[in-house]
Amino acid sequence: MHTQTDLFHYTLGLADDALVLGQRLSEWCSNGPFLEEDLALANVALDFIGRARMFYAYAARLEGAGRDEDALAYLRDCREYRNLLIMELPRGDFAFSTARQFLVDAFNLPFLEALCGSTDSELSAIAAKALKESRYHYRRSRDWVIRLGDGTPESHQRLQRAFDEIWGYSHELFRAGEAERRLVAAGIAPDRAALRATWESLVAPVLTEATLKRPADTWSVDGGREGTHTEHLGHLLSELQFMQRAYPGLQW
Amino acid sequence: MGSDPIFGRIALIDAELLADRESQQDPALAALWVALEEVKDPEIPVVSVRELGVLRRLERIEGGIRVTITPTWSGCPAMHAMASDIRERLLSLDVGQVEVHTRLGPAWTTDWITDTARESLRAFGIAPPAKTVPDTLAADPVPACPHCASPDTRRVSEFGSTACKALWQCRACAEPFDAFKRI
């Protein structure tokens, strides 16, 4: 039997995933390879930050402890963050960001579609909006994987290296801890493991068309949901949270 | 809700949309709706928030009016401005308290944009959105140029100056233009 705390932590995890990834995407703003792509990355970042806000607002209501979306985003330290590790990895070069975005976008399609069927009407409503935007995200990252993979020798090499480096972080997408499994039993959370086949069908043919080798499933990392993060999250949060920490209660 | 969760959910969505329509046609609220036509999308000042499908419903409550709005794209930064413009306009009519409620579901879709608004968009230089097709990964269809009406246009980027728009260019008259993305 799931608890309200299970649901709060679950929603917080989804919010953290979106905010951390949104923050990484935002780091490309004014650093993009050319203007149109700079705008595209900022647009996608905005979609993720928007969905983070919806999840945080709901999480705050679930917790019922008087925190709001800002308190959750700006005043928690690394060990309280529940995002998956793949979201917090530094943006790297354009190939690395493309590889990470593609793997996450391909996951978000079946995940959000399943979350639309959640018995929790708020999560279902957020998913319905996010799913439609994720279709635009997936098309974009898929097209870049093909263009870079089946591109110049340099773009191909960079993208292959990116997938090789990031592959072991993708397995965490399909894992669920005890609390999440209770929510799956209640029809609230999708069964992540069951989404793997669809994810493969969205990823494998694209890698093939991009003339890339699918890396082997020989290693994996996890711990994000439990607050055990890479050192990268600390640096990310120090930038994200600096203003609120330096000027507590600051408002625009 | 019925025993079938999917049909139960569809029934709830239909009920919400019906209540929205009834509110927009309620003669007792007509003066408010007329006044609120003046509240436009801050980025697209030729389309009202009602025409856009953002302003959904007005209800008389004890002490004032309850407004229901729904966000367009998840991160749309114009929502804040729209909510406050709606509130300002209603307060100027001495309606009492104004409570603005943001509703996430049913999810906003460009299909809700009225035909009149689509014409206003085109006249303003923005290609209106195509009708949505459910559950597809297919890209948006090629829009006609809103300046010269030529069908010979090319996409520059699927991500434009705002979350809701893509950037296209006409091959006939060479003008770039924004196209509303269907969602």
Based on the model shown, name its key terms:
heterodimer; A: about 250 residues; mainly alpha; Ferritin; 10 helices; about 0% strand; B: about 180 residues; alpha/beta; GMP Synthetase, Chain A, domain 3; 2 domains; 4-stranded mixed sheet; 3-stranded mixed sheet; 7 strands; globular
What's the gist of this structure?
Chain A is mostly helical. In chain A, 65% of the residues lie in helices and 0% in strands.
Descriptive notes:
The complex is a heterodimer of chains A (252) and B (183). Chain A has ten helices and no strands. The mean pLDDT of chain A is 97. Chain A has one domain: Up-down Bundle (Ferritin). Chain A has 252 residues and is mainly alpha-helical. In chain A, helix 5 crosses helix 7, helix 5 runs antiparallel to helix 9 (196-209) and helix 6 runs parallel beside helix 9 (196-209). In chain A, 65% of the residues lie in helices and 0% in strands. The longest helix of chain A has 29 residues, at 35-63. Chain A has helices spanning 4-26, 35-63, 69-74, 85-88, 94-115, 121-149, 153-166, 178-185, 196-209, 232-246. Chain B has 183 residues and is α/β, with parallel strands linked by helices. Chain B has two domains: 5-108, 2-Layer Sandwich (GMP Synthetase, Chain A, domain 3), CATH 3.30.300.130; 114-180, no CATH class. Chain B has four helices and seven strands. Chain B has helices at residues 5-25, 30-36, 78-91, 115-124; strands at residues 55-61, 64-69, 97-102, 126-127, 153-157, 165-170, 176-180. In chain B, 38% of the residues are buried. The model of chain B has no long low-confidence stretch (mean pLDDT 94). Chain A binds chain B through residues 36-37, 39-40, 43-44, 46-51, 53-54, 117, 119, 121-122, 124-126, 128-130, 132-133, 135-136, 138-140, and chain B through 5-6, 9, 71, 73-77, 104-108, 136-137, 139, 156-161, 163, 167, 181, 183.
